[in-house]
């Protein structure tokens, strides 16, 4: 890719000038990167709520944030704020509270959780309180629960962040399941390519490991039941894989047009060269048996980036650790990359940080960029029993040094939401 201000389709190039990360491994991309490349795990036994009687008691919860009391929206907003601050400090763009571009935020669907529901239901309205759902509505109308209103609305997190960081225009909140983080980045790339803006703040956050969510995924038989030791719970691509591990975190990117970044003398850390997105209407939770939507997603990303399969140096896999997802991802990579997949390293960050759901695409894109910047391939941990049906080089159990210029980062979600990104180093 030559040093120019347009890509192969004549569009402005979207570059990365700052990024931030927060996961169960800790705050900040450097701390996360050091732990990740050492093969350390952020997975642990859940202490946030009782897990008695549940088959799964492990998650990658973020328990070190200074918030008064847990709720998914409050934690999601706090983590996003930390990640954004790290990204802005690196990018050195705009002024405090005055970001010169729009906000694209991936955030989980918002709903009242059990502590808040119980508080509403416990509220007594006169001498003869109503019962059931009518009671909840009556309690909500009293005005005694106004503190819940700013949190439990889908757009509340983005509005809070837009006010804090002074982004332009209406903040965009989006939820495309486990592809959400990648989708947020794609929206920023598209806005820059259209010439709508010279800068965009693309963020993904998810703090929704609560009892009801854990139970829902358990009922789908999607979660790992390897509880002891917790760090062995996530086993992507291994023959004995048994499901994914819920986790939390946030990732933030400052995207700019190449021309705008160069004009202000910014350091360019990487390029979002291509994006691919396809929907799968086959089933709410299962993928198409032939993997066609995933195949088309990966292929679309490569076409959009203008790269050939042999240019992909590393794949940051979706790699959840479920039986079906890992197999379908391999078959799709094999179909698109052909024989190149036999010599292309593929690893899953989820083996150490778990599945950060809404935030996964952005967090894993950040780790993909760090792979390029540092020349180190993160390992796939807990790969003790290879699956002969998935003959991939998964960088098993130990990181590896390698020269990496171009990375494919995959995100495939429930409901048929699929997204892939192609990231590269600064144009030579």
Q: What report would you give on this structure?
A:
The structure is a single chain. With 428 residues, the chain is α/β, with parallel strands linked by helices. The chain has 2 domains: 14-110 and 151-424, Thiolase/Chalcone synthase (Peroxisomal Thiolase, Chain A, domain 1, 3-Layer(aba) Sandwich); 114-148, no CATH class. It contains 12 helices and 15 strands. The strands form 3 sheets. Strands 1, 2, 5, 6, 7, 8, 9, 10, 11, 14 and 15 form an 11-stranded mixed sheet that branches. A two-stranded antiparallel sheet has the order 3-4. The radius of gyration is 21 Å and the shape is globular. The mean pLDDT is 91.
Task: Please give the largest β-sheet.
Answer: 11 strands, mixed
Strand content: 15-25%
Q: Which value, in Å, is the CA radius of gyration?
A: 21 Å
Please work out how many helical segments DSSP would assign: 12
Structural class: alpha/beta
Order of helices and strands: EEHEEHEHHHEHEHEHEHEHEHHEEEE
Shape designation = globular
Overall domain count? 2
Q: State the end-to-end distance.
A: 7 Å
Number of beta-strand segments: 15
CATH class of the largest domain: Alpha Beta
The residue fraction in helices comes out at 25-40%
Q: What would you say the CATH architecture of the largest domain is?
A: 3-Layer(aba) Sandwich
Mean pLDDT over the residues: 91
- Low confidence ranges: none
The CATH H-level superfamily of the largest domain is Thiolase/Chalcone synthase
Oligomer: single chain
CATH topology of the largest domain: Peroxisomal Thiolase, Chain A, domain 1
């Amino acid at each position: 890719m030559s040093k120019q201000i347009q890509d192969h389709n004549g569009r402005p190039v979207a570059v990365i000038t700052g990024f931030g990360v927060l996961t169960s491994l800790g705050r900040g991309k450097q701390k996360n990167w050091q732990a990740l490349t050492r093969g350390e795990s952020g997975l642990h036994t859940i202490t946030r709520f009782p897990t008695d009687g549940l088959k799964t008691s492990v998650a990658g919860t973020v328990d070190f944030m200074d918030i008064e009391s847990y709720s998914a929206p409050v934690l999601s907003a706090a983590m996003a704020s930390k990640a954004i601050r790290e990204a802005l400090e690196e990018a050195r763009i705009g002024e405090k509270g005055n970001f010169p571009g729009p906000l694209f935020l991936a955030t989980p669907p918002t709903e009242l959780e059990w502590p808040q529901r119980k508080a509403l239901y416990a509220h007594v309205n006169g001498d003869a309180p109503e019962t059931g759902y009518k009671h909840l509505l009556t309690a909500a109308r009293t005005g005694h629960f106004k503190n819940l209103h700013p949190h439990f609305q889908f757009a509340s997190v983005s509005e809070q962040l837009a006010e804090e960081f002074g982004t332009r225009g209406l903040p965009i909140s989006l939820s495309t399941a486990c592809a959400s983080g990648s989708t947020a980045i794609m929206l920023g790339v598209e806005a820059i390519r259209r010439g709508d803006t010279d800068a965009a703040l693309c963020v993904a956050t998810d703090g929704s490991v609560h009892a009801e969510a854990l139970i829902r995924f358990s009922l789908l038989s999607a979660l790992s039941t390897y509880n002891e030791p917790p760090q062995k719970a996530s086993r992507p691509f291994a023959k004995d894989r048994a499901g994914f591990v819920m986790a939390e975190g946030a990732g933030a990117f400052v995207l700019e047009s190449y021309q705008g970044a160069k004009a202000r003398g910014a350091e360019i850390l990487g390029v979002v060269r291509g994006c691919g997105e396809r929907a799968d209407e086959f089933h709410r939770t299962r993928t198409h048996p032939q993997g066609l939507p995933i195949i088309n997603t990966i292929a679309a990303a490569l076409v959009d980036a203008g790269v050939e399969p042999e240019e992909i140096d590393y794949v940051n896999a979706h790699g959840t650790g479920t039986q079906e997802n890992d197999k379908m991802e391999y078959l799709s990579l094999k179909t698109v990359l052909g024989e190149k997949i036999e010599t292309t390293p593929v690893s899953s960050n989820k083996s150490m940080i778990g599945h950060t759901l809404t935030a996964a695409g952005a967090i894993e894109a950040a780790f993909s960029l760090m792979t390029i910047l540092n020349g180190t391939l993160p390992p796939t941990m807990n790969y003790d029993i290879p699956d002969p049906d998935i003959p991939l080089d998964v960088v098993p159990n130990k990181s590896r040094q390698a020269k990496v210029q171009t990375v494919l980062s995959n995100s495939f979600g429930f409901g048929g939401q699929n997204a892939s990104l192609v990231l590269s180093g600064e144009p030579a």
